[in-house]
Queue: 4 jobs
Job 1
Amino acid sequence: MLDLTGKNALVTGIANNRSIAWGIAQQLHKAGANLGVTYLPDEKGRFEKKVREVVEPLNPSIFVPCNVQDEAQMEETFKVVEETWGKLDILIHCLAFADKEGLSGDFSGISRESFTQSLEISTFSLGNMAKYAKPLMSEGGSIVTLTYVGGVKVIPNYNLMGVAKAGLEMTVRYLAAELGPQNIRVNAISAGPIRTLAASAVGGILDMIHHVEAVAPLRRTVTQLEVGNTATFLSSDLASGITGQVIYVDAGYEIMGM
C-alpha cells in the first residue's frame, strides 16, 4: 500500500552509512521515490566523496552541496530541484549541530556564538528550507524533521541541543499551521538514541543507549531503518491526515516515568 512512485524527495543530513538520514533515504527509495541528496561541502571535498559513495546504490538524480548557513547555496539547491524535477513532494530535514561547548559544562556558560550557531543550523534551517520548498510543493507535500526527547526533558550532556530541538518542535507546529492550506504537511520524528556520527558528540551516548535498552517497553532501542519506515509513512498518502505532530520512534521509552 505504501507507494511513493513518481514522488520527488530531497534528503538532507546524510554523513555516512550510520546516519538516520541514510536509513530514511533507503526506505524512501524502496518505496519508489526519486531521490535528491544534499551534502555539507568542505574545502577538501571529503564529505562529498563519502556521501556520494554511500548513496550511489540509490542512484539519486540530484546531488548538490548545501550549507544551510550559506543562503546562496540554499537558493541554488532548490533551483536545481526546480530545474530537474519541476516540483518537490517530500523534504527530509536531518540537520543539527552544537559544538563541544554547547554539549558539556554549565548551561549558563554557553556563549552567545555557540547558541546562535546551533539554533541557526538546527532550528532556523527548517523554516528557511520550507520557505524555498513551499513554491515547489504545488501539489501538496510532506516535510519531515528529526528531534529527540531531550527537547522536552533534561538529558545529561544534551544541553544546547535540547533548546534547539524544543525550538524545532515548535517550528514544526507553526509551519504546519502556515502550510496546511496548501496541503503541505509538517511533522517530526523523535527517535530513540542511535549510534551515529552526530550522537557520538554527546557524552555518555552508550550509557544512554543501554539505559533505553533496560527501561523501554520493547527492551531495546531502535534502528535507522525503523525511523526510515516512519518517515516514509509520514511522506505518503497513508498519513494524509497527520500534520504538526511529533511521532516517537523510541521503543516506547518516552512513556516511562522511571
Job 2
Amino acid sequence: MTTTEDQSVSDAVTAGSHATDIARSGAATFRTGGGQADPARVSAVVGAALEGIRAAIREQKVTYEEFDAFKRWLISVSDTGEWPLFLDVYLEFEVEKVAAETQDGSVGTILGPFWLDGQAQLDSPATLPMRDDEPGTPMILAGQVTSTDGTPLAGAKVDIWHTDEEGWYSGFASKPPAGNLRGVVTADDQGRYEIHTRKPAPYTIPLDGPTGQMTLAAGWSPWRPAHIHLLVTAPGHRTLTTQLFFTGDPYLGNDVASADKPELTLDPQPTGNGDEIRSDRDFVLAPE
C-alpha cells in the first residue's frame, strides 16, 4: 500500500503471501455457513465465468500474443500470492451486493484482504494499540450496537483495523509494528462503544505487484479512499462487515475496490481537544 503513485514499494509479495495464507486457512469464512459445494452450482457458476471470458476473447479479438501475456500475468499473480488482493479488489463488491439482497440492518461492504485474527481484546472505551509517536489526527469513533428491534446488544464486539497515516496496514507491510491500529473492542452493557485511534490515509493497492501493474496498464485509478474496516458481532446476530469513509476524500466515487457507499461516509467534527476529531456511528445487527 502506498500513499503516492510515484513511491517505490517492495511489500507486494509480503502482503500477498500473508493474505494468501489467511485465505488458504479459511480464517475469514465466518461470513458463510461453510459446507460442501453443490456440483450443480459449481457447474453453473464456473461455466458462466468461463463463458464470460470466452465472450471477451471473441468480442475483443484477442491475439495469441495477448493470450500469452495473460498467462504470464496469471503466473505472476500466483507467484506473489496476490489472488486474494485481486479477487477482493475487483470481484468481492459484486458478491457483497448479492449478499446484501437478503440482509437487514446496517449497510455493509467488502471485507478486503487485510483482516487479521487474534488481535488485542479491549474494553470500551478503548485506545487501539499504536506507537508512542503514532502520526496522524487523533480520532474518536463511538456509537451503539443494537438489534433490528432497537434492543441494545450488551457486550457486542467491534473488530476494527485500518492503515496508519502513511497508508500501511500492520501485518502486511514492514513499517508498522504487529497489531498496530487493530483491536477487538467489547461494547458496554448498553451496547455502546468508544474507540480512540488515528484518522487513516488514502492509499494505492501495491503497485509493484501484478494487480497494481494491471491496474496502471489499464489506466484505472489504483487508489482507495481513506477508510476504517469493521466487523461488528453479537451472539444470535449476523456479522456486519463494513467500512467507514470520510467526507471530502478525493477518491470517494473512484474507489479501486468499488466498496465506498454514500451511507458509509463519516463527517468527523472537532472535539475541542487539540486537533482531535470525533464521529458517532451506530450499528444495527439482524438476527440470525
Job 3
Amino acid sequence: MWEEMLKLTQTEESKEFKLFAALVDGEVEVEDAVQWVINTTMDRLENYGAGGTIEKADAITFIAIIELAMQIDTTQYGPLVDFLAELKLYNAVDSSTGLVLKTQDGSRVWSHLPSLSFWASELWNDRMTYICDPNMEPDQQIRWAKLNIFLAQVTQAADVQYTSPLQVWISDAMDESHMGLCGLRHVFEEGIPPERLASTAGLLGVCYWIVCAGDRLWENVLNRRRYNKYDGRPGEMYSKRGWKGFERDRWDVWVQGLRDVKAVCTSGQELVEDLIDRALSKIEHVMSNEMTSS
C-alpha cells in the first residue's frame, strides 16, 4: 500500500519532497519551510473546493517527510524534527469562518500533527506482517529501522506533560510513544521465538526506540501512561494481564525479551548483539537515573 501511495502522489517528484531534501541539506531554513507548507496546504485546500478535506490537502507533506526519513542518513534527521516542532505551533484556520480546521476525529491541523500519526500508522499496518519475518529484504529492514529511529527521535524531542494516566489527547503532538508501544508488543508479546527475532527488522526497530527514546519510554512507565483499549492492549501471550499502556511489569517483559534474544545470537550476528547491548545499556541508564533522583 505504501508503494502504491508513493506512486499515486508522485511523492519523490513533489515540491514537498524536494523542499524537505533541501531542508536537510541546509539549503532552506526551518521557518521558511514551515511557511511554505502552510501557504501551499491552504492554497491546495481552496483549490479542492467543496469536495476537498484538510486531511487530503495535508497528506503529501507527511508522506514526503516519512519517505525521506527512510532514505537519508539518520544523522540528517535534526532539521525534520525541528520542522515538526515549528509547524505544531500553528493552526490551520478556515479563512471564511475563522475556525480552526480539524480532522474527522477532532484533531487540530497543524498543532496536533494528525497526519504524522495517521501516515506513520498506515505504514506500520502495511508492514506489520513482515517486520518479524527473517526473510524480509535487507533494504526493507533498513527502511524500517530508519522509520523507527526517526519516530523515536521525534518522540524524544516532545515536551510531554503527564497530567493524567489516561491521555487520549496527548500534550505534545510530536509524542509518538504509541508507535514504540506497538512495536514492543508485536516483537515481545506475541510468542515469537528469540531465535527468529534475532534476524528481524522488528527487533531492530524496538532496539532503536529504546536507544533513541529510552528516556521518554521510561517516563511513560513511571507515569503509567495508558491508551485506549486497542492501542494499549497486550499481545497474545499476555492477553490476561489487562495491560493498557506502559506498565512496569510490561517493561520487565520487554527487558527480558531483549536478554533472551541476545542469549541466542550466533556467530555473524555481532551487529545485532551490539545493538541489543546498546538498548540494555540505555535501559540501565534511564532506570538508574530514576533511582538516583528518588
Job 4
Amino acid sequence: MLRFSFLTLFPELLAPFAGEAIVGKARERGLIDVALVNMRDFADNKHLKVDDAPYGGGAGMVIRVDVAERALRSLPPADEVILFTPAGQRLTQEVAEELAGKAHLVFLCGRYEGFDARVEGLVTRELSIGDFVMMGGEAAAACVLEAVARLVPGVLGDPESHQADSFSSGLLDYPEYTRPAEWQGQAVPEVLKGGNHAAVAAWRRAQALERTWRRRPDLLPHAGLTPQDTLTLQGLGATPEDLTAWGAPPAPAKRSRKRRQEADSTS
C-alpha cells in the first residue's frame, strides 16, 4: 500500500479527489491510503492561528515553521516529505513513476505567502507543477495524487495501460476511437476495424510519432527511436539534421528487387 499524507489548511478541497473515481476505489480496495491532515490541529493556541506577519514587513501572512513541524511529527516516518514551491523540481511522468515506488509520501500544501523558509529544512524534495502562481498547494497536490496513484500496481484495470500513455512511452499518445464508426463525415480508420493486431500496432506507433513530431518534437530525443521510426519520420518530412538531433538510428536498408524476388521464390 502506498500512503499519501497531505498537510493542508483546507482538507475539504482535497477530499473529493481522494474519495471519488479510481482513486476512491483504490482506497476501498486497500491499494492506497490517503490522510488529510489539517494543520490547524497543531496550531497550539486557542484561536487555531497557524500564520503570522513576515519579519521585515510586506503583504500577506506566512505559515509558521513550528506548526508545520508539529504536524509532520504526528505522522509515521515518510520516504519523502515534499513541499510545493515555484523553485521545485518540475513534476514529470518520470518523477511520478519514481514516487509510485515509495511507501509513504507527505505533501506540504502552502497558503497565503507560503511557509516560513525554515520549513525547507524539514523536507526532502521540492516540487512544482508549472511556471504559474496559484492560491495554494491543494490543486498541485491533487495533480500529484492522480498522477502517482494510477501507477500503483492494481489501481488501473489493465496493468499495462499506463505504459502506452503520453510521456510514459516517450511519445504523445496515439488517437483513440470508439462508436459510432462514422460521425459527421469523420470515419474511424479502417485499420482499427480489421482485426490485424500487428497492423494496428504499427498504425498507432506511426500516429504517435506524427503527433509528437508536429506538436512536441522536444520529446523525440527521449523516445527511444527505432530504425522503423526513422523511416516514418523521414516520410513525415523530418530532415537529416532533425534525426541526428533526436538520436535516431539509421533507417532500415531497402532490399533490392532481385533480393525480394529471391526471398519470395524460397518462401
